[in-house]
Amino acid sequence: MKVIFSFLAINFLFLSSLFAQDDADYIKVLTGRADKIVKTLGIEDSEKYKRVTTALVNQYKGLGEANDALESEKKVTKESIKDKAELENAIKALENKRDAELYNLQCIFIGSLSADLTNEQIDMVKDGMTYGVLKVTYESYQDMIPTLKEDEKRQIYAWLVEAREHAMSASSSKDKHGWFGKYKGRINNYLSKQGYNLQKEREAWGERVKARGGTL
């Protein structure tokens, strides 16, 4: 009996060590990711730098846990519910629950950043978490359609900001870009209703970029 107990204890300690190492490696990856963003903010105070980095790491960790939990719960739900309509409702309920968690995480995260960063720096953090897609996309629309009116530019920018808010909480690079793709569809529909022929605008844009020695 003592031999069995000792074996189980050793096995438990071994597994605990592996999990601890995995967690340490995971935190190291998140810290590296966060540090790349914080380096762009021009923070000279070391304690402030550390607080902002920690806030980012905690946010990444929280997002991962919330999104992973959803996938795990969806898998169990799909195995236990066979009725299609009931399954769809159950999945939607799980997604709503996850979305509420993401909203709370976002509020806490932005609140913690606000204690140390300016609004401009917070936007830089948001752009860092979403690969700068907002800026690139906004500039691309202006380059593609030089005749955009100021109110049209404001609308495009507002939707891209909204897309960035969603993308910040997405679980993968693909999902982050997916949010911008969704809002680009909305923007394109809007521009078409404004009277722009997007196919012709893209063709003309391609020619201008080509003349500058670039590619789309």
- Major beta-sheet overview: none
Query: Taking Cα atoms only, what radius of gyration do you get, to the nearest Å?
Result: 23 Å
Give the tally of β-strands. Answer: 0
Overall mean pLDDT stands at 91
Number of helices: 8
Structural class, from helix and strand content? mainly alpha
Q: What ranges have pLDDT less than 50 throughout 5 or more consecutive residues?
A: 12-20
Task: Estimate percent helicity.
Answer: over 70%
Total individual domains: 2
Approximate shape: globular
Query: What is the CA–CA distance across the termini?
Result: 71 Å
Classify the beta-strand content into a percent band.
under 5%
Helix and strand element order: HHHHHHHH
Structure in words:
By secondary structure, this protein is mainly alpha-helical. The protein has two domains: 2-117, no CATH class; 130-211. 83% of the residues lie in helices and 0% in strands. Helix 2 packs antiparallel against helix 3 (84-114), helix 5 runs antiparallel to helix 6 and helix 6 packs antiparallel against helix 7. Mean pLDDT is 91; it is low at 12-20.
Structural topology:
Elements: H1 2-38, H2 46-80, H3 84-114, H4 119-129, H5 133-144, H6 150-167, H7 173-193, H8 198-211
Helix pairs in contact: 1-2, 2-3, 5-6, 6-7
Quick summary:
With 216 residues, the protein is mainly α. Helix content is 83%, strand content 0%. The longest helix is centred in the first third of the chain and has 37 residues.
